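To close the chapter, one final illustration. This time we ask the reader to focus less on the individual chains and more on the assembly as a whole: which components sit near each other, and how the overall shape emerges from the parts.
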Amino acid sequence: MDGEHMHPEGTGLRGALETHEVELNLGPQHPATHGVYRALVRLDGERVVGMESIIGYLHRGIEKWCESRTWTQATPVFDRLDYVGAVLNCHGYVGAVEKLLNLEVPKKAQYIRVVLDELQRIANHLLWLGTHALDVGAQSMLFYGIREREAILDLFEAMLGQRLLPNAYPIGGVRFDFPKGWEAVCRRFLEEMPKKVDDYETLLTGNRIWVQRTKGVGVIAADQAIALSLSGPTLRGSGVNFDVRKALPYSSYPDFDFEVPLGQNGDVFDRYLCRVREMRQSLRIIRQALDGMPEGDLKGKVGRIIRPPMGEAYFTVEAAKGQLGYYIVSEGAEKPWRVHVRAPSFINLQGIETMCRGALIADVVAIIGSLDIVLGEVDR
Amino acid sequence: MNLDWLTAHVGMPLVKILILLVPVFTVVAYIVWFERRVLAFFQSRLGPNRVGPLGLLQPVADGLKLLLKEDIVPANARPFLFKMAPVFSFFPALVGFAVVSWALPWVTPSGKTHGFVIGDVNLGILLILSLSSLGIFGIILGGWSSGSKYPLFGSLRSASQMLAYEVPLTLSVISVILLAGSFRLSDIVAAQQSLGWYFLFPGLVAFGVYIVAAVAETNRTPFDLPEGESEIIGFHTEYSGMRFAFYFVAEYANVVLTSVVATALFLGGYDIPFVKDAALYATHPRLVSALGVCSFAAKGALFAYFFVWIRATWPRYRYDQLLRIGWLVLFPIAMANLVLVALFKLWLLR
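The assembled structure is written out below.
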């Protein structure tokens, strides 16, 4: 970056009326890029005329690392992809291995997985909502989001012994049934949470400034969103009805009655509304799963050492950020030959250049927030 | 030139400046503590509570920390302006307090009177307005002389924001001046006392415009664009240590000054609510003076609380929206209101 033309004396020498574009590095150390994401923005005044995403600052070689671990040993590392939606990452991986093993997961385990998955989705959306609102300048929202997320993390801690990266599921099922009293605490949370979501909506959805800051900002049309293969709320904000839980059902999701919230305009506001409504739907799913919890085993028939047959499998779940896919290849050995992750944050991030065209700096920050990226997943 | 003249024009003002500076600095320091505590209660957390009882020594600790920090001047900066800019911001914020009249004059037992003001100049409110415009140069110069991009954006935003909000602010103040018939702050308060009601009621629109413009003027949420910490980090990105503290103190001094001026203009300043001040002053002058200061402080605190409340609730406006509000909403409203107030004064208050 040439600091020269930004120097006060440099600007003086160039004559009073000459203008030029400014290149600005948004990140990798910037409070609103949600990690070490770097956007190289070309600006005309405060208007964005060009933008380039630069990633890779958090690359840890997770996919390669797995190849030197056994199938079981590789499980916990996927929690570290999207570290605010760890349970869902884990579900994707064990689901893929189970698919390759052709293993039937007991119904009870499936229901427990649904409960934990949806709790994790709410926790993720709460953190997203807090940080996104903070980026747009509403700082109190962050603390409300964290407060409710804390209740979910406490539930995880009580059940799984870990809060953030719980390594939730073993291959073949779940480790534990709900501990004593857990369900009651969870049900109390389900009762209180809708009121809290109402509060968030009062603070933001009906707020003039919030609406002005988000409506019509960062628009991406449905066909563009599909062409860029966006997924999750980022896609549904544009009005495309695609939710893996409905389109490619897994883990007993067809048993539950829930809606997929859709947006219309594909702007920051619609993506925000989709996620907030998704929280309500997740609460609905958890309630149904707790009510209809079947009896049975916690784990399918799986040996201590897992050797999936030679072959490949691709399994996707609806993670909090979008469609999270695992493509695994086995040579029949104890270790995977290849694990590839279709990371929704990484693919959704592609939309940012379309969304930011003609936006202002403040919009760029709002748009990054509305994509809900986690750099652990983008860079892997 | 004799001794009496020296006492009256040099000695007393100096003593008063010292007497005023201590509470002003204390209030500025503690309004930071107040804001952090109140914000914390809005956000279901505790806020500073470790340093001293209730965290009351937190401002001292913060000040010490900033004092001991390294003073960094970036290689790309213009050193002289870079170093002077915080002073530019700091100084006008403090000088404004000199013309504020805090209570009815103090009557000593020997019958002498001392005004609760350093200089009760006849253009007091104009002085405050012009000083607050000067203060923004501190931000513009600081951002520009840093030789860095983020601060430059901050200072550019600040320049256009100042233009957009100074005008409605001044227009709303003018309507009060019209009602009172004087630029002197003590006269404005006296006019409200003699009328028996505060200018808040005939000047409700002016009051609204003043509040919005004052929030923009002091760079606070939802108009904190020059700082915009999640977008452009702020005009003071390159500042460290005490120079940063100067900006920080200047911001809060401006909050206090704006609250004080709003109180004087619209809420009757040191007038004690529900009491006939003038009648009571004739019999108990010292009591009224003392209560007047308290009343002033209490009303000012309401404003300060209001500022924090806004910050806890609202998101930030965008640059273009901010300018649109300033020029296309506030400016016409303030202008129309000014005409209405003038007619009101002409026909109803004769």
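Chain B touches chain A at residues 39, 42-45, 76, 78, 81, 144-145, 147-150, 152-153, 157, 221-222, 224, 228-233, 311-321 (CB under 8 Å). The mean pLDDT of chain B is 85. With these observations in hand, you are ready for the problems at the end of the chapter.
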